[in-house]
Amino acid sequence: MHIKFSMRTVKAIAVLCTILLIAIIHLANPNFFPHLFALLSHGDIRETADYIQSFGPWAILFSFLLTLFVNAIGFPPAIIFSTANTLIFGILPGIFLSCVAETVGVTVSFLLLRYFFRDAAVKVIQKHKTLANLDKYSGKRGFVVMLIARMVPYFPSVLLNAIGALSALSLRDYVISSFIGKFPSTGIEAIIGHDTITQQEDPTRMIVVIIIAILLIAGAWWYEKKAAQSAEEADGQPEEGSR
């Protein structure tokens, strides 16, 4: 009973803090939320980039928080903001900013789903047979499953957040696999979007992103292999009481 009460208290505090934050933002700028919701509903990349740039020296922070927010809720598609970031800050800086912000966003979603909305996450997975199969497999090779799934361009991020939250995947492995997995997918999406809008085409940029992605994937493979080896060695050691 004490545990339930504590969890309810934490949830109540989280809700109150969220309401308080929204109220403060609204009082400071009453037009902020209407403008932001209109922007999100339109999905116009150039309009989004112009709006982010209007914050001047705070543009990078606002872009980070905005990208984080949309990845946490899973709407609208992240490609809008990753492309806008490349238009504002440049290709590689824009991709890096987007990857970091998106990773923080899906981590927030992961924590919320795992500790606050677990029942809702279960329902999301049960409605998708493929996701249910991935969830079963993720118990043993969760890091690899999440890494590969994050690499798929245009795949709904919110579904992977639900799988990660219900799996046995640790927070550390979830963050690492999400960041590395997001780099190739975000990079490819952002470059295609950037070149489509600016009507430019430079294969060198795509090659650089692919090379960096390969290096990150190789590092992730080495990390997962070492972690699995360490786990096997730990399981094979006898307990002190049995010596």
What descriptive keywords fit this protein?
243 residues; mainly alpha; single chain; disordered N terminus
Give me the secondary-structure topology:
Blueprint: H1 2-28, H2 32-42, H3 45-53, H4 59-73, H5 79-89, H6 91-115, H7 118-126, H8 129-151, H9 157-166, H10 171-198, H11 203-236
Helix pairs in contact: 3-5, 4-5, 4-6, 5-6, 5-10, 6-7, 6-9, 6-10, 7-9, 8-9, 8-10, 10-11
For the biggest sheet, the summary is:
none
Beta-sheet strand percentage?
under 5%
- Helix run count: 11
Number of strands: 0
Q: Over all CA atoms, what is the radius of gyration?
A: 20 Å
Percentage of residues in helical conformation: over 70%
Strand pairing plus helix content: what structural class?
Answer: mainly alpha
Low-confidence stretches: 1-5
- Give the overall shape, derived from the CA principal axes: globular
Order of helices and strands: HHHHHHHHHHH
What does this molecule look like?
The longest helix has 34 residues, at 203-236. Helix 4 runs antiparallel to helix 5 (79-89), helix 6 packs across helix 7 (118-126) and helix 8 (129-151) packs across helix 10 (171-198). The chain is built from eleven helices and no strands. The chain has helices spanning 2-28, 32-42, 45-53, 59-73, 79-89, 91-115, 118-126, 129-151, 157-166, 171-198, 203-236. It is an all-alpha fold. Residues 1-5 have low confidence and may be disordered. 83% of the residues lie in helices and 0% in strands.
